[in-house]
Amino acid sequence: MKQRGSSLIEVMVALFVLGVGMLGVFAMQAQTQQFNHSAYYYSRAVMLANDMAENLRTTPSAAASYSLFYDDPTPNAKECEGRANACDAQELKNWHLKAWRESVTRQLPDGRSEVVADGQYITIKIQFDDSRGSADKQNPEVSEYVLVTEV
Question: Full-prediction pTM beyond 0.85?
């Protein structure tokens, strides 16, 4: 007698192969999500570092005094935004540092920031928790973006 159609074993093997393929697709999707989070945080860090570099260029007379280390408290500053709020270079520097540090803290998980003036070079550092982009969820991974610019 001639057989027609598929046997039960053939159908089960086909479903097993399909299931393994789908697990691979889901694993790739999860890995892609991790990489997207990491790329997002790095792009925010780059944008924030460039923002501080632009702030330094607006007050070149005070650029050499732009130093704020990771553990230093955020400086107090008067509001310098708008024409009605006239600020000298020192007040503008403190306002830039305060606003920038608050932006780093707000936009990055466990965000920390540092600006170090060393002669004609300014080093801008931003640290953040990149554990969402890492496979090891138990140990937080601290990433750091460093920008060195000349004023």
Answer: no
Give the three-state DSSP class for 31. helix
Structure tokens at 65: 């005094």
Question: Tell me: the pLDDT tens digits for 20-42?
Answer: 999 999 999 988 988 898 899 99
**Which residue, 58, 63, 65, 64, is CA-closest to 80?**
58
Angle made by CA atoms 12, 13, 18, in degrees to the nearest 5: 95
Tokens of 97: 């540092």
Contact yes or no for 98/75 (Cβ under 8 A)? yes
How many other β-carbons are positioned within 10 Å of the β-carbon of residue 135? 9
Residue 31 CA to residue 42 CA, distance in Å, equals 17
